[in-house]
Amino acid sequence: MTSQQQQSLPVRLHPSNQHPTLRAWTQSHPQLSAAALMYPVFVTDDPNPDAVEPIPTLPGQSRFAAPNALIAHLTPLVALGLQSVILFGVPSRIPKDNHGSAALDPNTPVVLALRALRKHFPQLLLAVDVCLCPYTDHGHCGILTNYDTQALDNDASIAQLANIAVHYAQAGAHIIAPSDMMDNRILAIKRALNNHKLSNVAVMAYSAKFASVFYGPFRDAAKSAPGMGDRKCYQLPPGSRKLARRAIVRDVAEGADMIMVKPGYPYLDVVRDAADLAPDVPVAIYQVSGEYAMLWHGAQAGVYQLKDAVKESLEAGLRAGATILITYYTPMVLQWLKEDQQ
Ligand code: PBG
């Protein structure tokens, strides 16, 4: 063989692929593990503290009354290795207004849940979604200057979001996760936390949050669909990689401790952008309600086994550059990880 022919020997990948250990060596990212998983949970103010309300659009998921039903639900999961949750309040017995004033009530479901979980599961990492939409009468994520035109008052909104962030941090949240998409809320929240001597509380920015149809089941679960209009003026256009990149860079500059891309599966290029643009903060990927439902119904229809499809989807998120996987499948994945170890 001439050296010319040797040089042109075709590249062969199969030799690196013949054994599980060989395959593990080709991984560019951490393996799927309990530490990567964050479990989104809906918390209600049902007068019956043991109430569990199944959510029809999210098969297998429920809303839990704070604090009893929530603690009962989480106890076996913590035993299985659950390490972090993100809480969503679903208040139904509060007065709603333009400013989302009731979010600052000392006894909202989310605040009751934070206090109780902090006491009951001292090792559990507690993130909390911060947004105005569950507390506003119009259902938008910010304060409006005009109900007819649905124009947002960005400055007033971020001031109120910062108040809510402080309120949740005082109740015991380790991570504040603003999902509202108002401009410059990360800086406003960071400043407010500092001013209240809460600078140890982390902020996870929903930085690249797209105006997605995949939030449908969540709006049902959280009863948070806007009463009029849509969220396209503050959530990102699905085709806009450029705005996503600017949002990521800005939120890191404003002090975000973690950044998030949402939804997950259709936006893995943005996850890779986030990992490249912000290499020094962990990137989270939110596999949202519509993705959960899609994977579920695909399995129901016999397209694949649920376990295989969910694990592949999460693996893809890790490969794209995420460290944190926010998924409603967390309880099932914890169970599967345990089974796989046995
Ligand atoms: C509220 C919020 C939404 C989600 C998380 N926080 C809905 C929205 O912005 O319309 C979606 C989560 C999911 O679909 O699982 N601002």
UniProtKB/TrEMBL annotation:
One of its GO terms (biological process) is protoporphyrinogen IX biosynthetic process. Zn(2+) binds at C131, C133, C141. GO terms for cellular component: cytosol. Its cofactor is Zn(2+). 5-aminolevulinate 2 binds at S289, Y328. This is Delta-aminolevulinic acid dehydratase. InterPro entries: ALAD (IPR001731), ALAD_AS (IPR030656), Aldolase_TIM (IPR013785).
